[in-house]
Design goal:
- It is built from six helices and eleven strands.
- By secondary structure, it is α/β, with parallel strands linked by helices.
- Helix content is about 20%, strand content about 30%.
Length: about 220
């Protein structure tokens, strides 16, 4: 039951070419920076990235885009300050984009983690985002049917973890990270503090049953 991994490179070693990878974080909070750097060095290609945004600057998701490791992005905000690499790849026709409203993105991921077959939401009804999707009217309100969104791997960041994979988050790093951990076949967590002793059960946000590998990375993005 000891899920501790000695280094970042070993933690991301199972990620294969063509994998669907969820990346936690919101803005600059809760980004698994160490795991993303290790994934860049690992060399996996043709990745589908599921994240709130498409990165910014030269690090993290942006570095994968820069090195042409990503074939598709599923996110809410593909364009943010400094997101030059997504824009360049998209304008060159080198990458596919699926836009998902932020609340819908979170709920699609949650639905996958909960084993649900999908859900109805009024968000995007009557817009281009609803094209090709099943719609329904209930009590005079239009709804769009959204399918669950799962992944092969989830890369997540937490403040603390223990040998069993239980996780505790710091403040707003508790954004997409907990829900993504439930929706992937294989979840890999980097934590600022990794303990051989059990975390206080009352403080655990992500139970270890959802985490397959955990590695310490003390740098706080």
């Amino acid at each position: 039951m000891d899920k501790r991994i000695g280094d970042l490179a070993t933690a991301v070693a199972p990620i294969f070419d063509g994998a669907v990878v969820m990346v936690g974080g919101f803005g600059n909070s809760g980004i698994p920076a160490g795991l993303l750097t290790a994934l860049l060095e690992q060399g996996a290609r043709e990745l589908t990235i599921i994240s709130n945004n498409a990165g910014a600057g030269e690090d993290g998701i942006s570095s994968l885009l820069r090195e042409k490791r990503v074939s598709k992005v599923i996110c809410s905000y593909p364009r943010s300050p400094g997101s030059i690499w997504f824009e360049r790849r998209y304008e060159a026709g080198e990458i596919e984009l699926e836009i998902v409203p932020q609340g819908t993105l979170a709920e699609r991921i949650r639905a996958a983690g909960a084993g649900l077959g999908g859900f109805l939401t009024p968000t995007a009804y009557g817009t281009l985002l609803a094209e090709g999707k099943e719609t329904r009217e209930i009590d005079g309100v239009g709804y769009v049917f959204e399918k669950p969104l799962a992944a092969d791997f989830a890369l997540i960041r937490a403040e603390a973890g223990d040998r069993w994979g239980n996780l505790r988050y710091h403040a707003t790093a508790r954004n997409f990270n907990p829900v993504m951990a439930t929706a992937a076949s294989h979840s890999i967590a980097e934590v600022r503090h990794l303990s051989g002793d059990a975390l206080d059960p009352e403080a655990v946000i992500t139970p270890g049953i959802f985490v397959d590998r955990i590695v310490e990375y003390g740098v706080r993005p």
